[in-house]
């Protein structure tokens, strides 16, 4: 196996680079499968890419989601419209709370 990178460069092979954010010693990764991507990226950073890929293979981690509405970039227009309707009441309550907080 190749030696560890130790370069601190991060972002070795995330599935979606925007999911894994590394600045210095602080790294964040929101989401469920993004958390797995984060772990694999950290293993690659701390050990090496081949070792991380062996971990991925051992786990048989090969995501293929059944739906493709995980972001506004991929969600169909009808799903985006439904989401706006679902959140309409929440938005009204949030705006009222924000207005009340400002006095």
Q: What are the SSEs and their pairings?
A:
Layout: E1 21-23, E2 26-28, H1 32-46, H2 49-59, H3 77-102
Antiparallel strand pairs: 1-2
Care to describe what's here?
By secondary structure, the chain is mainly alpha-helical. It folds into two domains: 1-64, no CATH class; 67-103, no CATH class. 50% of the residues lie in helices and 6% in strands. It has three helices and two strands. The chain has a two-stranded antiparallel sheet. A hairpin with a 2-residue loop joins strand 1 (21-23) and strand 2 (26-28). The longest helix has 26 residues, at 77-102. The chain is elongated, with a radius of gyration of 19 Å.
Q: Number of DSSP helices?
A: 3
Radius of gyration: 19 Å
Task: Give me the oligomer status.
Answer: single chain
Amino-to-carboxy terminus distance: 62 Å
Q: Estimate what percentage of residues fall within beta strands.
A: 5-15%
What topology, given as strand order, has the largest sheet?
1-2
Q: Report the principal-axis shape.
A: elongated
- Stretches with pLDDT under 50, minimum 5 residues: 1-15
Helix and strand composition category? mainly alpha
The total beta strand count reads 2
- Largest beta-sheet characterization: 2 strands, antiparallel
């Amino acid at each position: 196996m190749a030696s560890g990178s130790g370069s601190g460069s991060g972002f070795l092979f995330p599935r979606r680079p925007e999911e894994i954010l590394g600045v210095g010693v602080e790294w964040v990764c929101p989401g469920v499968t993004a958390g797995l991507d984060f772990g694999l990226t950290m293993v690659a950073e701390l050990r090496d890419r081949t070792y991380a890929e062996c971990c991925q293979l051992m786990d048989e981690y090969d995501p293929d989601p059944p739906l493709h509405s995980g972001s506004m970039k991929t969600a169909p227009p009808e799903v985006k419209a439904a989401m706006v309707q679902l959140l309409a009441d929440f938005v009204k309550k949030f705006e009222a709370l924000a207005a009340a907080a400002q006095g």
